[in-house]
Amino acid sequence: MGAVLAVTIGILVIHVNFVIFQGLFDAIVRDLTDYRFGNLQITDEEDYIDKSDNYLVNWFERIPYVYAATPRLDASAAINITKFGERIEETRVSVVGVNPLRDIRASTVHETVTEGQYVFSRNSIVLGSNVAKDLGGAQVGDNVKLKIVDRYGNDKLKRFIVTGIANSPGGNGFDYSVVVHIDTLRDMMDRDGYTGSIMVKLNDPSKSTELKNLFLQTFPNDDFKAETLEEVAEAQLSGFRSGIAMINMIGYFGMMSSAFAIVTIQMMLVNGKTKEIGVMRAIGAKRKDILIVFLFQGLIIGAIGATVGTAAGLGYTIYAKETKMSFNGSLPLEVTIQWDKVIQTALTSFSLAIIASLYPSYRATKLLPVEAMRTV
Amino acid sequence: MYNLNKVYGEGDTKVHALQDLSITVNKGEFLLIVGSSGSGKSTLLNMIGLLDQPTSGKILIDGIETTTLSDGKISEFRNHKLGFIFQFSNLLTDLTVLENVMLPRQIQGTNGSASEDAKELLKIVGLEDQMHKRANKISGGQAQRAAIARGLVNHPTIVLADEPTGNLDSVSAQNIVQLIKSMAKKLGQTFIVVTHDRHQFGDVDRVITIKDGRAFEDEKPSKLEVPA
Q1: Residue B17: inside a domain, yes or no?
Q2: How far apart are CA B80 and CA B63, in angstroms?
Q3: Residue B209: beta bridge partners?
Q4: pLDDT tens-digit profile of B28-64?
Q5: ipTM summary value
Q6: Chain B 56-75, CB below 8 Å of chain A: which residues?
Q7: Using a CB-CB distance cutoff of 8 angstroms, which residues of chain B are in contact with residue A281?
Q8: Residue A30 phi/psi, 5° resolution?
Q9: Domain ranges (residues) in chain A
Q10: How far apart are CA A241 and CA B19, in angstroms?
Q11: Exposure on the CB side of residue A134, measured as CA atoms within 13 A
Q12: How far apart are CA A280 and CA B205, in angstroms?
């Protein structure tokens, strides 16, 4: 029972680790994909894309495995809020220009708008929740003024009406930015027809590299830079990946601990059954018969432990998936059941249980019947 | 057995448990081995039962020289040719009485008639209604009866009993003695019984007294005197 529990807990720990840390990683990837980069991001090698955004978006959307594409433009600005004729606060923010009609297809940023609605006109602005806080608690309906330095070094001022406040669980959305209409931002920056990036969302994310190559082959002379999510967010993801690898290692060390627990428990079992082993040997059981008995026991321990542990692990995984598990209102974990990992974990622990039974089984075979039977 | 010697330890701590012991046991004979504690009688039984190896000498059973057999062959030999009844019944408590009795046959791999033979023996020893109980749920006397059935189930050449009544009250002990003797008679089975209480077994075919590792042959128990 103890040995079965050791295997079960070993597997459960790996599943829990996987759900939490892989879920967290996948949630970050999901948010980066949905909010910022898509599965493929197109930028210009130098500064801005000067080719028509409509042309590029239409080019992408003709491809069957592309779900949607949308242009984005980024800038930084000073923002202040005036209430009852009095300027209350001023702070600096990053500004994201979006095409509202296309953006709601290619991105889920609009879903993070918890109050009011997403950008819908040239003078509407969505404030990130942290920006709203920095502005002394800006609310929907308030007037804010953006000051941007255009391409010629001139300050451009424009007043906006706050139409929404964005607040993303986990903070990977535009909580520290403001969102405006892309054409408004182009006007303010005096960059009519320019685009900062094209965010492309795929039906099948595994085809991002294929699409990247196709795009670069199609537009070889435009100085475009195409990056998959893994490339564009490499810095953000690589550290996390190492962390996950380390957590997985800890999980597998946990499994090794279970194996040692099995060795200990099996040794205790051999010690507890010494007399019985002696009797078995006396009435004709060969060493290999004793070996088989204890190995079979290890096999049963492994099989039951792996089954119960996997069932418990899957139960936890499904629970986390169905409830969109998150911690303290942070970003909901992106939980997936990876059957290859599930099977690999179950088989590894099953094998370890058998391997862990080898030494105790061997010890059992080495007992001399006449001495073993003297054991009380 | 020819010139059987068993020496434990070395140098100053050397102990001769058996010394130049030669005994022949005839088929169907009921042989009682008696002696005081530490005389070497159990050591002798362990040698005959191939549970221990003699330091020198030979043991032949059914014409087979057993001291040169490999470990695997010894196990096989014990399983096919020998039956054991221990002082403590030594039943496996995780198994039922019937499963315990069947065990030697299951080890042999002759499961076919094992169940029937085991049930028949349990009927003979009076445990017909106890056979499906766990071994730890029956009394000491019943457990020893089951052990006798287990010792006989493989139709052994010799049944070796080491103080088979040593752990029982006097009434149970007497019942077991009667059972062993009746089984020996009924089956024509060779029995070698080690006991410290020779009178408990009454009239038997032969009695050998072991003292200081040596054998003192061999009179009818009624005439035999315990060596001084």
Answers
A1: yes
A2: 14
A3: B34, B216
A4: 999 999 988 888 888 899 999 999 889 999 999 988 9
A5: 0.87
A6: 71-72, 75
A7: 75
A8: -60, -45
A9: 2-28+237-372, 47-222
A10: 75
A11: 17
A12: 31
Size of the A and B interface in Cβ pairs below 8 Å: 50
Does the pLDDT of residue B108 top 60, yes or no? yes
The CATH number linked to B73 is 3.40.50.300
Please tell me the distance from the alpha carbon of residue A370 to that of residue A280, in angstroms, as a whole number: 11
Report residue A34 as tokens: 């949905």
Of A279, A283, A287, the CB nearest to B71: A287
| Tens-place pLDDT, residues A297-310 | 888 988 998 899 99
Provide the terminal-to-terminal Cα distance of chain B, rounded to the nearest Å.
Answer: 25
Residues A83-95 have pLDDT tens digits of: 777 777 778 899 9
**Residue B225 belongs to some domain of the structure:** no
Place of tokens 């991001």: A41
Q: What are the φ and ψ backbone dihedral angles of A283, each rounded to 5 degrees?
A: -90, 10
Element spanning A165, H or E:
strand A155-166
B103 near A CB under 8 A: yes
Cα separation of A297 and B76, whole Å? 23
Residue B226 lies in a domain: no
Q: pTM, whole model, 2 decimals?
A: 0.69
Q: CB of B78 within 8 Å of any CB in chain A?
A: yes
